[in-house]
Amino acid sequence: MKISTRFDAGALTVTDLSNPADIRLALRPDNASDFAQWFYFRLQGAAYQNCVMHFENAAQAAYPDGWEDYQACASYDRQNWFRVPTRYENGVLTIEHTPLANSIYYAYFEPYSSEQHLNLLGDAQGSGLCQIDDLGSTVEGRDMNLLTIGNQVQSDLKVWVIARQHPGETMAEWFVEGLLARLLDPQDATARALLDQATFYIVPNMNPDGSALGNLRTNAAGANLNREWLAPTLEKSPEVYYVREKMRATGVDLFLDIHGDEAIPYVFVAGTEGVPAYNERIAALEAQFKAAFAAASPDFQDEHGYEKDSPGQANLSMATAWVGENFGCLAYTLEMPFKDNHNLPDDDFGWNGQRSLRLGEAVLSAVLNVLPDLR
Question: Would the pTM count as exceeding 0.70?
Answer without folding.
Answer: yes
